[in-house]
Amino acid sequence: MLTKCDIQNDFNTIHEIINDASIAYKGIIPADRWKEPYMPEDELKTQLDEGVEFWKYVENNEVLGVMGIQNKGDVTLIRHAYVRTAARQKGIGGKLLKHLIDVAKTPVLIGTWADATWAISFYLKHGFRQVSEDEKNKLLRIYWSIPERQVVTSVVLASKDWE
Question: In angstroms, rounded to a whole number, what is the distance separating the alpha carbons of residues 114 and 144?
Fold first, then answer.
């Protein structure tokens, strides 16, 4: 079942899932961008304060995956898409993504690490296309608040309705 997260009740679960699932990035993303925990609580709070809304996938009363959506006016960003390590490869991420695409009222952009080939493949499989290097650099600087080092080591994927 897909439902919007209640931050007061779901904050710890969101935090736990992000840090469980993000272990897949260890040794893949640049070492200078890896930290433990991958997303500290204060960083998650900042994301929420900046308007990221999380949705969750629940099965048998357990939250198995979370995905964020952020309205940026003329675009919608998909942020922080994570499925518990033990629940991967069961279609949970696809269900969350499809739902958030349906919720979005504007074209959708997704940023991810350039070396996270599985993530890029996942988004391509779901109808997104990778934008050019120049467009990626421009979009990351306009719509995301990330360090320059992360801009250099990331890609952006766009929905079919992106110009």
Answer: 16
pLDDT digits (tens, 9 = 90+) for 87-107: 999 999 999 999 999 999 999
Distance CA 131, CA 109 (A): 10
| 28 vs 95: CA distance, rounded Å | 25
Domains recognised in the chain with CATH numbers: 2-158 (3.40.630.30)
Asked if 10 and 63 count as a contact pair (C-beta separation under 8 A), the reply is yes
Note the pTM of the prediction, 2 decimals: 0.96
Is residue 108 classed as helix, strand or coil in its secondary structure? strand
Closest CA to 9 of 64, 65, 54, 67: 54
Question: What are the C-alpha distances in Å from 8 to residues 26, 81, 88, 103?
Answer: 29, 20, 26, 22
Each residue's pLDDT tens digit, 31-74: 999 999 999 999 999 999 999 999 999 999 999 999 999 999 99
Rounded to whole angstroms, the Cα distance separating 162 from 87 reads 31
Q: Dihedral sign for Cα 131, 93, 104, 51, please.
A: negative
